[in-house]
Amino acid sequence: MRIGRLTGGLAVALVLLFMALPILIIVILSFSSASYLTFPPPAFGVRWYRTYIGSDEWLAATGLSLSVAASVVVLATLLGTLAALGLARLPPLLRNLAAALILSPLIVPVIVVAIGIYYAYSRYGLVGTPVGLVLAHTCLAVPFVVTSVSASLAGFDRRLEQAALSLGATPWGTFRQVTLPLIRPGVLVGALFAFITSFDELVVALFLSGSGAVTLPRRMWDDLRFAIDPTIAAVSTLTIVLTAALLGAVYLARQRGERIRTT
Amino acid sequence: MSAVVSLATIPLAAARAPVRRNVVPVLLIAPLILYMLVFYAFPVVAMLLRSVDSPTWSLDNYRQLAHDPVFFQVFWITLRTALIVTAGTLLLGYPVALALARLRRGPAALVLVLVLLPFWTSVLVRSYAWMVLLGRHGLVNEALAAAGLIDAPLKLLNTSFAVQIAMIHILLPYMILPIASVLRQIDPALPRAAAGLGATPARVFRQVILPLSMPGVAAGVLLVFVLSLGFYITPMLVGGPRDMLLSMLIAQQVDLINWPYAACLSATLLAATLVMLAVFQQLPGVRNVLRTATR
User: Fold this and answer.
1) Which CATH architecture has domain B69-293?
2) Whether ipTM exceeds 0.90
3) pTM attached to this predicted model
4) What residues of chain B, 105 to 144, have a C-beta less than 8 Å from chain A?
């Protein structure tokens, strides 16, 4: 019994190590002072972060990725939140049809979406433009907004809205003062997931970036095909830190959501 | 009956509601539906149609695919990779899911962070990590050499093995999370009752826990298998020339501007995905697990 539990615990620890180690090693290597990837690093330093900050190309790619992701957040959160509110009130048949379309980017292989988008967008001059990337990434990000807002609506007591309406509130006033505060954590979580989805997206960007709209993942990809430069380790670490910070925000938003619902 | 009750309880001000009740939700959802049709569904469908419309409307392209040895070779490697990755994630993921469901709140939260952080780290970064680990002068080779186990560096990168291990690493969370969510819902009284009736821990697991966790296993297998079928970034970076997967063949054909063939392959990949989805959704409980897992 005890031996069984011990080997079980050991197995779990090993799998967790397997999951965490590759990422941990990237973080450690990014602080290496060596000019090539060697482990353990002979000494630690921030020279690769300096290379990154000193490179106009890297900074331009980062700026583009941030602005594309920010636009995607606005577009996907707006469209997705409205749709989730409508979805909850639709009759079942229509709801299932609409949900199938909206959630399908989670199921359709990304490569199929990517080349389909490339095929159609190239006819309208959208390849190599930030606008094309925003339009495409929004399709991939919207399912996360809709599921997250829908989840917060599932635990939502519709009688609260009815009470506000019957007490003389306008529909808009009811939405702003009753509905929105209650679903806000869900909206926030959806928006954060939308940001991460766009910021990390590569397959669509490979086809749509062209030479005019090179995102950060695209820039990393181009670099990786030539050499495994430690600058990529530094950039990777920065994106890991950004993602972890956003996930922390998601966690806090969810906690707040629970609190609002239970009080 | 319920209609009568609700009519009676609706305040007079809502008498116009029957019209509004249908119009408002449609107005709310219309912008997104329109957006998805124009910028997502139309592009994908237009591309897929290229498989049947050139030079004239026919299924010739699909007929050719049925006699295409390259396609069968690639399809077989894709299928084999997906099967190996699914088996690997199940083997490694189940114990972690079990731990996630059994541990007390604090340790469980730590395990969850260790599972979720790689989950949300981009596929590109994780593939890059495996390039660093498996390279000729990578960490694995250096460690093996330092331990005196090998004289010359092993060829690990750009092999099928590299593709499989990296994909297992990347897809593990998709196996762990649904299984853990099902395990957590098992009534703790059931294993306790079995143990009280004299079952050994191994028997409790085999006859109580394992059967009850099957919907989670099926959902995890579905997610990992379907995602494996369409994987692109990782095999491109760590795979070898002989490890061409379906997604890579599709991208290659797009580069060669051979749209009919690319569309044909895409339709096949999509069909394989949808068939898997349809089959697995028939299994008991899978639908529920997928619904809760997307939240």
Assistant:
1) Orthogonal Bundle (1.10)
2) yes
3) 0.90
4) 111, 114-118, 120-126, 128-133, 135, 137, 139, 142
